């Protein structure tokens, strides 16, 4: 028999059993503490010896410290401690408009073009049309401006045609207005053709920490053999540091240096006062130029020097400027095609080494693979088309005429398909199109627009024999480089003027609108005001002294004004049988300043601060108007049926859809509306009946050159309500209103379930 354990032994065994899971943790803590103490004793033991005296370091700390000497002080991070003087009043910190201003970033390149009154409307315009859109900022400088200024060109006139004086004033103007904002300054003449993309690529490879005077170096006449100036006809590049150092000496250069040529004068000024000469090569980058001879044919120039040139001079006339631009564009395009072919060949060679092997190679090579849907709801549908008709129309009709951009797109795709076929099979076969049998296209957001064409072709052999055959081809128009469109600066501090039209049919929803406005705008002190448009029917307007149909609305407004003493909610009474949106907006526009930001709302709109801020950001004066697509809730009687409605829940995603048929909500500036309305008035003359068939959206669409931003707005939610469609409006407006009511009932699944339950009830 096993002897029984005593009481203390049993207790010790139970304690050890309980601590056994924690033993690794305790051992790790003890080992870590021991190592840390041991390391601390080592570090304190050699504290009396200097850090650099250790033989194993070989002076490395000194080398690192020497690399961050006084000359490179600007690259060392510095932490500036915050200190607030208690004796001084605290002032609010004013933040800059853009974060790059606050961080001290500069724009990359500024371009100055020297022109004259004689060539302003010829060569300067040609420069503007060929290269201006490739430079971030381009400015033209002239002595005297002509009577007629070209549109779309920023021009500075100095008032004197003397070349040296023009150069002096130009450099001084650039330093004064753009010196702190740009890293590089490129100066060229209007008889120079510059490859804009190559110039921009050049400055990205140069260090901004040096004084740079880069161009085509030329010798001075009877001057120092070592000194060089940059020839003005081929353009030259100045760094910001050089420009800042040159500015104090410009007046001395103007008074002391005499020269007929402005480029020689500037070169002599830089050499005499800064000791910097012009160079054609810097930091491994070459400034290639090409001098054009008389009667040069750019299309026949095949020299390597010509194709590598960043600047070409002299350009004698406008036609030659455009021919040069076409020639260099073709050179760059061919270079891009060669690079694409090389990359595709590398991809093919590397694909065999991947786990997927040759099966992983997508078509076209280098383009993303087609989107693979995970369910039937993610399948991207194909649109069928012929050369005359499109069978997927924007208005929802099954068939419409192929026109506009779609027609041009189809024609270009067919032409590209024939070009690719001929390039592949010539000279054995030559193809020509007989007919487009079938055409399919779809937009894949992962790669671009895809096309599948069934072409009826006539193939002609080298001996002249012809044969008709049908061939299917697939093409892809890939998504190109994404561009950021510059937009004017706007803020969220702009006051929004809400305009709410009300009819007798809207009285049941006014209380909810005012409650939401008070909770989300007035309680939060948002910079928003409200104006009511009370639309009286002529019959109700005659009886307003006895029975005012809007008496309840006026009482609610009075209660709001009592609750918020600083708030005034005006109303405007209008008598009409047909409440045209344009006519109502005409009345409101005349009663507000031109810089007012309007938000044209509807009584079912739930106002919130999130949307008001987006209204401020998306509506830009003289640039863009915003027409949001609100989220419309479905009919709760169909969506929930016998279930309990959960609309009151804050985290419940309410069933509904974005109502694309409604254009009732809009954000725009009064000045933009007045401009478009003036053009509309000149077009229709006194035909006011036309206004009944138009909305504010139509006014901006047809009579303004502004951007119309139409997008879904999840922050603009409307609860379900059956709208009353006025039959006195135009047929299109009435049809859109009816469609909005029908599509707002429920989704297809909701309607199908309701019909199923109704049939089940009828059968029983």
TrEMBL record:
<comment type="similarity">
    <text>Belongs to the chondroitin N-acetylgalactosaminyltransferase family.</text>
</comment>
<dbReference type="InterPro" id="IPR008428">
    <property type="entry name" value="Chond_GalNAc"/>
</dbReference>
<keyword id="KW-1133">Transmembrane helix</keyword>
<dbReference type="Pfam" id="PF05679">
    <property type="entry name" value="CHGN"/>
</dbReference>
<dbReference type="GO" id="GO:0032580">
    <property type="term" value="C:Golgi cisterna membrane"/>
</dbReference>
<keyword id="KW-0325">Glycoprotein</keyword>
<keyword id="KW-0472">Membrane</keyword>
<dbReference type="InterPro" id="IPR051227">
    <property type="entry name" value="CS_glycosyltransferase"/>
</dbReference>
<keyword id="KW-0333">Golgi apparatus</keyword>
<keyword id="KW-0735">Signal-anchor</keyword>
<protein>
    <recommendedName>
        <fullName>Hexosyltransferase</fullName>
        <ecNumber>2.4.1.-</ecNumber>
    </recommendedName>
</protein>
<dbReference type="GO" id="GO:0047238">
    <property type="term" value="F:glucuronosyl-N-acetylgalactosaminyl-proteoglycan 4-beta-N-acetylgalactosaminyltransferase activity"/>
</dbReference>
<dbReference type="GO" id="GO:0050510">
    <property type="term" value="F:N-acetylgalactosaminyl-proteoglycan 3-beta-glucuronosyltransferase activity"/>
</dbReference>
<keyword id="KW-0808">Transferase</keyword>
<keyword id="KW-0812">Transmembrane</keyword>
């Amino acid at each position: 028999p096993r002897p029984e354990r005593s009481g203390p032994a049993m207790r010790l065994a139970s304690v050890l059993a309980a601590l056994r899971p924690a033993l690794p943790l305790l051992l790790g803590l003890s080992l870590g503490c021991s190592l840390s103490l041991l390391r601390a004793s080592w570090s304190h033991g050699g504290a009396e010896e200097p850090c650099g005296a250790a033989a194993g370091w070989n002076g490395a700390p000194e080398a690192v410290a020497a690399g961050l000497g006084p000359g490179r002080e600007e690259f060392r991070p510095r932490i500036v401690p915050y200190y607030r003087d208690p004796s001084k009043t605290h002032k609010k910190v004013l933040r800059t408009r853009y974060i790059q201003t606050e961080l001290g970033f500069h724009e990359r390149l500024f371009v100055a073009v020297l022109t004259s009154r004689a060539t302003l409307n010829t060569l300067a315009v040609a420069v503007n049309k060929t290269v201006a859109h490739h430079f971030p900022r381009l400015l033209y400088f002239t002595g005297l401006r002509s009577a007629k200024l070209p549109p779309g060109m920023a021009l500075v006139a100095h008032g004197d045609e003397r070349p040296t004086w023009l150069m002096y004033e130009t450099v001084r103007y650039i330093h004064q207005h753009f010196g702190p904002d740009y890293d590089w300054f490129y100066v060229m003449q209007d008889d120079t053709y510059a490859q804009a993309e190559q110039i921009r690529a050049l400055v990205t490879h140069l260090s901004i920490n040096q004084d740079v005077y880069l161009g085509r170096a030329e010798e001075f006449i009877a001057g120092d053999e070592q000194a060089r100036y940059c020839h003005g006809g081929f353009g030259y590049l100045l760094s910001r540091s050089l420009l800042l150092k040159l500015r104090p000496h410009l007046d001395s250069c103007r008074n002391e240096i005499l020269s007929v040529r402005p480029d020689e004068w500037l070169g002599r000024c830089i050499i005499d006062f800064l000791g910097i000469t012009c160079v054609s090569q810097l930091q491994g980058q070459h400034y290639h130029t090409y001098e054009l001879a008389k009667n040069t044919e750019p299309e026949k120039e095949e020299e390597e020097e010509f194709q590598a040139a960043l600047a070409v001079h002299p350009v004698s006339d406008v036609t030659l400027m455009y021919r040069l631009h076409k020639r260099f564009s073709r050179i760059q395009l061919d270079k891009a095609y060669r690079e694409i072919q090389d990359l595709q060949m590398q991809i093919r060679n590397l694909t065999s080494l991947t786990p997927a092997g040759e099966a992983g190679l997508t078509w076209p090579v280098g383009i993303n693979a087609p989107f693979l849907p995970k369910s039937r709801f993610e399948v991207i549908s194909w649109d069928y088309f012929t050369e005359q008709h499109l069978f997927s129309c924007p208005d929802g009709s099954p068939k419409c005429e192929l026109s506009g951009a779609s027609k041009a797109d189809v024609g270009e795709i067919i032409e590209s398909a024939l070009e690719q076929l001929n390039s592949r099979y010539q000279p054995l076969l030559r193809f020509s199109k007989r007919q487009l049998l079938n055409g399919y296209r779809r937009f894949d957001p992962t790669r671009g627009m895809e096309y599948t064409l069934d072409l009826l072709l006539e193939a002609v052999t080298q001996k002249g024999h012809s044969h008709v055959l049908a061939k299917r081809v697939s093409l892809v128009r890939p998504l190109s480089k994404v561009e950021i469109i510059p937009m004017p600066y706007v803020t969220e501090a702009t006051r929004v003027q809400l305009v709410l039209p009300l009819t007798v049919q809207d009285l049941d929803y006014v209380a909810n609108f005012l409650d939401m406005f008070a909770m989300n705008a007035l309680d939060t002190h948002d910079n928003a005001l409200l104006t009511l448009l009370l639309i009286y029917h002529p019959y109700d307007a005659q009886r307003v002294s006895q029975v005012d149909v809007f008496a309840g609305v006026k009482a609610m407004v009075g209660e709001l004004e009592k609750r918020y003493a600083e708030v005034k909610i005006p109303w405007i009474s209008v008598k009409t049988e047909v409440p045209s949106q344009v006519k109502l907006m005409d009345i409101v526009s005349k009663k507000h300043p031109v810089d007012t930001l309007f938000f044209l709302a509807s009584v079912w709109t739930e106002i919130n601060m999130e949307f008001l801020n987006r209204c401020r950001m998306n509506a830009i004066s003289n640039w863009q108007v915003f027409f949001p697509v609100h989220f419309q809730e479905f009919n709760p009687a169909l969506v929930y049926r016998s279930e309990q409605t959960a609309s009151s829940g804050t985290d419940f995603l309410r069933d509904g859809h974005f109502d694309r048929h409604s254009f009732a909500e809009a954000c725009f500036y009064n000045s933009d509306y007045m401009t478009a309305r003036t053009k509309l008035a000149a077009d229709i003359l006194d035909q006011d009946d036309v206004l009944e068939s138009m909305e504010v959206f139509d006014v901006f669409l047809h009579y303004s050159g502004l951007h119309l931003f139409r997008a879904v707005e999840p922050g603009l939610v409307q609860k379900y309500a059956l709208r009353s469609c006025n039959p006195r409006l135009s047929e299109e407006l009435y049809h859109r209103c009816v469609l909005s009511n029908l599509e707002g009932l429920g989704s297809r699944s909701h309607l199908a379930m309701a019909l199923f339950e109704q049939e089940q009830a009828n059968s029983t």
